[in-house]
Amino acid sequence: MQDFGDAFGLAFGLVLNPSADLIEIVGLSLRVSLSACLLACLIGLPLGALLAITRFPGRGAALVVVNALMGLPPVVVGLLVYLALSRAGPLGFLGLLYTPTAMIVAQTILIAPIVAALSRQVLETLHDEYAEQFRSLCLTRWQIMQALLWDGRMALITVALAGFGRAVAEVGAVMIVGGNIDHLTRVMTTAIALETSKGELALALALGLVLMIIALGVNALVQGLRMRGAAQEVAHA
């Protein structure tokens, strides 16, 4: 018990007075996850808007696929990206394997379906509400998508934050494609796994505390935005 107590004490000390290694790991984690979240939003939000306003044969099957992709196993995504980026793979010539870029690609593939599926739900509700108005204005599909994305921006920010929270806590895919290389591809989740296996509990706990702080911060932002949106709806009613 004393060992665990010492480890927690050292972990809090590292959080309050972070070392260069801890700052580097946290910084890379945020850079990779924020980049993946941005790319996922650039892909997922237009796709979600398109699915929300378009009716076509096979739309039900497309929605089933998008919703199913929300549960993609990270290790499977990591394996597929690894095969694509390996020397024998179709994109091996890019030399991206075991780089932060490969980790960004893997996280983007993981969270883009989440952004697309959740944004589709939000925007379809808005579209049903404004459908008659859109028809009366004779808006194009692109104009409707723009209007929905702007009007639903507060809810879509919460979707983006949910995607970021999923990305920053991911370990399986980034371990496979990043390799957990010190000073190059080591992020918080992979570092926690490594340090725990080495018995270096202080650094693992410190990184775990930082990860928890980030997760709580993201959830607090989501809750705050939801409350703000509810307050705006009441004010407009």
UniProtKB/TrEMBL annotation:
Occurrences of domain ABC transmembrane type-1 (ranges): 26-222
Family from the record: Belongs to the binding-protein-dependent transport system permease family.
Taxonomy, superkingdom: Bacteria
Chain segments annotated as transmembrane: 32-53, 60-85, 97-118, 155-181, 201-222
KW ATP-binding (keyword) present: no
Bilayer topology term: Multi-pass membrane protein
InterPro entries attached to this UniProt entry: ABC_perm_TupB-like, MetI-like, MetI-like_sf
GO BP of this protein: transmembrane transport
UniProt keyword annotations, A-Z: Membrane, Transmembrane, Transmembrane helix, Transport
Gene Ontology cellular component annotations, sorted alphabetically: plasma membrane
Compartments where located: Cell membrane
Name assigned to this protein: Tungstate transport system permease protein
Gene3D superfamilies associated with the record: MetI-like
Principal location listed in the UniProt entry: membrane
UniProt source species: Sagittula marina
Record carries keyword Ion transport: no
